[in-house]
């Protein structure tokens, strides 16, 4: 009896403090989000990474990932990310707005690092579908940072696109059964990003042949490290899909 009470108290206390995950595919609940390590390219390198949930409040989350990776400088080692649990399943034609805010900072970083800080948004022809699956039609990346000369999938097809108060270069190319569209900041690091993601969706519907009947299947935000070491703090992140 006494033992189980103590166990319960410990469990409650643990849920209110920072929790670090370190396994290759570990995930943990993070309020309105799920935080995942997703060290999918780990075998291409030597190193390690762990991710810590710092706090959640309503639709906002704060978290940190600490990484160091060597070898194969052109291979992504991981995509530690938070994915919104319910901001999904909305058809682009039904979307009225998709407000998002992301404040982040490199607390430490080696010189140089090869890494991006990015949104990874998945769309498909059905409301539900796992990211990077047979249900995926488009992967829409928004790079708020790309350091060390790294490049997105495919090739640059357009430059100097003004959207959401910033200027972007657009890359496009295939990956497995889906197309990747990557908006890369032409303004350098955007560490305080406030935008309506609908601006990006409208752009690809109007200019890249993306059907407005596509459904948003997942919105993830995180970082793709290639090589170097860093501690990346997301001070605050939120996103919503409004119909
Ligand atoms: C997190 O990963 C980094 C990079 O591999 C490592 O230096 C650090 O010791 C790890 N921290 C924890 C708490 O596991």
Automatic annotation (TrEMBL):
Biological process per Gene Ontology, one example term: polysaccharide catabolic process
Presence of keyword Nucleotidyltransferase: no
Family matches, as Gene3D superfamilies: 2.60.120.180
InterPro entries, sorted: ConA-like_dom_sf, GH11/12, GH12
Coiled-coil stretches noted in the UniProt entry, renumbered to this chain: none
Annotated signal peptide: 1-18
UniProt KW keywords: Carbohydrate metabolism, Glycosidase, Hydrolase, Polysaccharide degradation, Signal
Tree of life domain: Eukaryota
Molecular function per GO: cellulase activity
Pfam families hit by this protein: Glyco_hydro_12 (PF01670)
Family of this protein: Belongs to the glycosyl hydrolase 12 (cellulase H) family.
Protein name as annotated: Uncharacterized protein
Organism (species): Trametes cubensis
Lineage of producing organism: Eukaryota, Fungi, Dikarya, Basidiomycota, Agaricomycotina
């Amino acid at each position: 009896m006494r033992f189980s009470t103590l166990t319960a108290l410990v469990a409650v206390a643990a849920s209110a403090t920072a929790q670090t995950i370190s396994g290759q595919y570990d995930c943990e609940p993070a309020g309105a989000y799920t935080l995942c390590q997703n060290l999918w390219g780990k075998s291409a390198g030597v190193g390690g990474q762990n991710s810590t949930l710092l706090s959640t409040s309503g639709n906002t989350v704060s978290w940190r990932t600490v990484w160091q990776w060597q070898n194969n400088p052109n291979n992504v080692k991981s995509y530690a990310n938070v994915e919104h649990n319910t901001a999904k399943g909305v058809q682009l034609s039904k979307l009225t707005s998709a407000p998002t805010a992301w404040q982040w900072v490199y607390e430490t970083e080696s010189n140089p690092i090869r890494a991006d800080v990015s949104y990874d948004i998945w769309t498909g022809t059905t409301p539900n579908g796992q990211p990077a699956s047979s249900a995926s039609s488009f992967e829409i990346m928004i790079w708020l940072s790309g350091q060390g000369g790294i490049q997105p999938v495919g090739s640059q097809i357009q430059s100097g696109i003004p959207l959401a108060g910033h200027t972007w270069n657009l890359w496009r190319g295939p990956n497995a059964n889906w197309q990747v569209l990557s908006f890369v900041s032409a303004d350098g690091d955007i560490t305080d990003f406030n935008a309506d993601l609908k601006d990006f969706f409208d752009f690809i519907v109007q200019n890249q042949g993306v059907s407005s009947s596509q459904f948003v299947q997942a919105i993830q935000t995180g970082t793709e490290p290639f090589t170097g070491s860093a501690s990346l703090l997301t001070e605050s992140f939120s996103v919503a899909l409004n119909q």
